[in-house]
Design a protein that fits this description.
Number of strands: 13
Distance between the termini: 40 Å
Structural class: alpha/beta
CATH superfamily of the largest domain: Vaccinia Virus protein VP39
Number of helices: 6
CATH architecture of the largest domain: 3-Layer(aba) Sandwich
Helix content: 25-40%
CATH class of the largest domain: Alpha Beta
Order of helices and strands: HHEHEHEEHEEEEEHEEEE
Number of domains: 2
Strand order of the largest sheet: 3-2-1-4-5-13-10
CATH topology of the largest domain: Rossmann fold
Radius of gyration: 17 Å
Strand content: 35-45%
Length: 248
């Protein structure tokens, strides 16, 4: 049997830092999604979030009157989501295996389908998940997602950091163009009393071409529009959004 988890997936410290300092993408995606659900019969029902993280988008959907169901491979993220949205349903599960309910929308925000935390993930696997999403959506329903593309790091390597009084996060991204893969080496420091606790994570992503993703989504039956931004937040190079509608 294939090993499902190839390494840490947003363990406790990185989940905390991501929630505290990097929730802007989920907030912008929530604005984008809710704007697309304004008209009946999409104004009520269930919103599903694959790779729900700490529940930022799910919280916005719940406050707008939707039932929310979220899935994430990170136990730490699922616990944060449960605290943020007590009335939501959140499960620790890979998107490869999820059993989707009937819904008005599915969101997968933050390059969810690129991550190789589940070693079974591939474009073929993602296509199977998208087909299940299509079947679960009511007519007119929306799949909102974003994907990392080849050229996500134009120079091939990129380093940066972020810090507050309570935490710091050091990041190095390395793209291998010939393999269409991206490695993210992440070192975190979280305050623990008078000292800082140090942890490391390695995230691997598979990168794709825009046209192959659009073709796959179209073949399933979605009406696809690519997005250069979620609401007012613009994607950097090599990162693209997709608004996919199931025809009525």
């Amino acid at each position: 049997m294939a090993k499902k988890n190839s390494g840490p997936a947003y363990d406790t410290d990185l989940a905390y830092i991501h929630d505290a300092g990097f929730g802007h993408v989920a907030r912008a995606a929530a604005d984008e999604l809710l704007a697309r659900l304004k008209k009946p019969p999409l104004k009520s029902g269930t919103v599903v979030e694959l790779g729900c993280g700490s529940g930022i988008l799910s919280e916005r959907a719940a406050k707008s009157g939707y039932d929310v169901v979220g899935f994430d491979i990170s136990p730490a993220m699922v616990e944060l989501a449960k605290k943020r949205v007590p009335d939501g349903k959140f499960l620790c599960q890979s998107f490869v295996d999820v059993d989707l309910p009937r819904c008005v929308a599915v969101a997968a925000i933050g390059e969810i389908f690129n991550y190789l935390f589940d070693s079974r993930n591939s474009l073929s696997t993602v296509n199977k998940v998208w087909r299940r999403v299509y079947k679960s959506l009511m007519p007119g329903g929306v799949l909102l997602l974003d994907m990392a593309l080849a050229g996500r790091i134009p120079a091939g390597k990129f380093r940066t950091y972020a810090e507050t009084d309570d935490w710091a996060c050091l990041y190095e991204g390395i793209e291998q163009a010939e393999k269409k893969t991206l490695e993210r080496h992440i070192t975190t420091f979280v305050r623990e009393g008078e000292t800082f606790r140090r942890a490391k994570e390695l995230h691997r992503l598979k990168l794709y071409e825009r046209d192959e993703l659009v073709e796959s989504l179209n073949k399933i039956g979605f009406q696809v529009r690519t997005l250069k931004a979620y609401s007012a937040w613009k994607f950097p190079p090599g990162w693209l959004g997709f608004a996919c509608v199931k025809p009525k």
